[in-house]
Automatic annotation (TrEMBL):
<keyword id="KW-0378">Hydrolase</keyword>
<dbReference type="Pfam" id="PF13483">
    <property type="entry name" value="Lactamase_B_3"/>
</dbReference>
<dbReference type="InterPro" id="IPR050114">
    <property type="entry name" value="UPF0173_UPF0282_UlaG_hydrolase"/>
</dbReference>
<protein>
    <submittedName>
        <fullName>MBL fold metallo-hydrolase</fullName>
    </submittedName>
</protein>
<dbReference type="InterPro" id="IPR036866">
    <property type="entry name" value="RibonucZ/Hydroxyglut_hydro"/>
</dbReference>
<dbReference type="GO" id="GO:0016787">
    <property type="term" value="F:hydrolase activity"/>
</dbReference>
């Protein structure tokens, strides 16, 4: 399986000529969803979900389908009947030949005064886990953790402890658009030295084999 990092929280997974894209939001490239056979969205925040971009992808190819939670599905399902699937914690499905299990229910706390929205994470082929905007522990082995490294709802100590709790072979940064180049080496050093797993930072468009 080939993993390609796109900007911020978006990744593309490819195998056997099929492509699965997770979270092509507005912080990602405008064409992040282009060419996908299946699309997964973890939650409704615009850095993870762009209704316009998903509509473009769905219009471009009538075979494309979306799996997401209710808050996102409700914005798309009427226009694309039968192609937008609502999923939640504990569900399992196959999308474009990828086996996916759903974990988690709520977005991480940004501030106690802000209501929490729903959020799900996706474990793909029992290997790659994308948690969206939460530090969800899936309760099953993870080879490659997509690590939300910088967000209004986390701090580096929590990020390190999350890697330790999951115990993946490697952690690859996502949710990094807010992290400046000046600060990146600080995060890299702490996560690599304290996380207990291999830590990688891929540039946008860079790929790796899983």
């Amino acid at each position: 399986m080939k993993l390609t990092k796109k900007s911020h929280a978006c990744i593309r997974l490819e195998k056997a000529g099929r492509t699965l894209v997770i979270d092509p939001g507005v912080f990602s490239e405008p064409d992040a969803a282009a060419g996908a056979d299946a699309l997964l969205v973890t939650h409704e925040h615009p850095d993870h979900f762009s209704e316009e971009r998903l509509r473009v992808a769905l219009d471009a190819d009538p075979a494309v389908e979306v799996w997401t939670l209710r808050s996102v599905a409700g914005q798309l399902s009427a226009a694309f009947p039968g192609r937008v699937h609502t999923v939640g914690d504990g569900d399992a499905f196959t999308a474009a030949g990828f086996d996916v299990r759903v974990h988690g229910e709520l977005h991480a706390v940004i501030h106690p005064d802000l209501p929490r929205i729903t959020n799900v994470g996706f474990l793909v082929d029992g290997s790659v886990f994308h948690p969206g905007d939460a530090l969800t522990v899936p309760g099953e082995p993870v080879d490659t953790l997509m690590l939300p490294v910088m967000a209004p709802w986390n701090k580096v100590a929590e990020v390190i402890d999350y890697v330790r709790e999951i115990g993946p072979r490697q952690a690859i940064d996502i949710h990094d658009a807010l992290l400046t180049d000046l600060a990146r080496p600080v995060y890299d050093t702490h996560i690599q030295n304290l996380g207990g797993a291999g830590h990688r930072r891929l540039a946008s468009g860079e790929s790796t084999g899983i």
